[in-house]
Amino acid sequence: MGWLLRVNRLYGPSERWLRSAAFADAFQGGCWAELTSIYQISRWETAAVCAPYLAVRRYEELLGLPSHHLVALVDTIHRYAASTYSVLPELVRAQDRLAASDRLDELVDRAASSTALLTGVEWDELTRRLAATPTVVITPHKAWVKIAERLLSETIVADGIAWMQRYEALSRLLAHPVGQQAAVAACTSLAADPTNQVFVETVSVLDASDHPDANRHVLEQLVHPTNERAQYGALLASVRKLRFGHFTDDEMPSLVAIVQELTFDSTRRDDIQPLAAELLRRLPDTVSTTSRTRLGALAGDPTLNQVLRAGRLADQEASQRLVARLAGMVVALMPRDVPRFRDEVLPVLLDEMLFNPVFDVRLLAAITVGGTPYRRPLAAGLAAELSGSTVLGAPVAPAMIEALRVLGGAEQRAVIERLITASGVPARVTVAAAQAIGHVGGSSEDRFWSQAITYHAGLWQRTQQPAHAAALSGLTYGLGMARNRAVLHRLRTDDRMPEQVRAAARWWLNLPTVVYEGANR
What we know:
Blueprint (H helix, E strand, L loop, with lengths): L1 H9 L9 H8 L10 H8 L7 H11 L5 H13 L19 H11 L8 H13 L9 H16 L2 H16 L4 H13 L7 H5 L7 H12 L4 H16 L8 H12 L8 H10 L7 H7 L6 H9 L5 H17 L13 H10 L3 H12 L4 H12 L2 H4 L4 H11 L2 H12 L5 H10 L9 H18 L2 H16 L3 H8 L6 H11 L3 H6 L3
């Protein structure tokens, strides 16, 4: 948090705030009532003390950032790092201390309604108030189910700040002593439904709960998954569950067995095997002698070898050259030089964003950098790298495309569009681009959607290759995130499409209006 505050101040739109004295002089006002010294600013920005909620909000006001931009980032970063026993956010809001039962009743009624819209700020307030009253009684009890199901549905179709606010709210519900059973059940039910279209997030979010039902469901999706996406989500959930000791001694043998099986199964999707290998690396004392012998056979795969040896997707020396190049370019494009400031955090975040084998860590690193003025030049740098044929053939290319899901603006969307239909591009790059188009900034014309769908539908009909079906699924997801109902209607009735694509279009079109229209508020 200290780094976020400092970088946003130093490289923000006003050169005036380069001087901490000027920033401190102007700090009183808006939502912040107290006088503030340069020493207080320094203590916040160097993490000597944690900046309080209203101070973070005041940074947003002075720096001209969107409301709750920094607050949502801090909540998201803290949630992944913090123990799952913590329900309340790191940034304690003043109203959390108030027993405003009428306000809580109002928010509960609206969240359980099938028509009332809730903003991300209101979901934040509702779940904070619930967290502050762990023994709260909500009647009827089925209201917990309605709230959990709606919050999960909005989370999986939201984006940007709206997604961060809802993901944080859902994580709080999953840790709530009373609400967690309804939240776990909502995730379990949706992940078991083969017509659902968002599996990874639905299963992986169970890492926020230490409830026995959450553990059981994660293990079920590892051993008998609804599909590969659900299994990948279960692997992601296992990373934090393992770190926080959620699995019991009786559950660990099942986890170890399936992780070993997935590590040695080269027929799995490109992202499953490296993630399984990373989990296996974190289980050194439980790996069988036979598996240790088999690990030697994986040394010939550069990616798996690096994961098992160092917990990375690429050799550190080679990856450091790319990280140093990107970091140097980004800092050089900042609006001003900052004397005596050397950013040692940025290279660490770039390395995690591109080379960590855990998708959640890569995503969190991209979100963190994306919350600073580094975002636009970094997005431009990644797009430039992806325009070269050398990088497209490298293992890092999909991670770069993933990062552009968070960092990319309208300028980078054209690069993603081109990669979706470019010939001679590795299949994993094509699929990654199709899966990213729903999140990259800007918008695509109907002409692009039609051309891309026709291109991959034709190839799928001729070859039946899974990559083209996956690209079509990614495009359908992108249409759903873009709220392009007209093209979704055409996909739903197009018998040239794989059935999974037509089912996906139906799923998006059948989403309740209160969820579909309210998720990005």
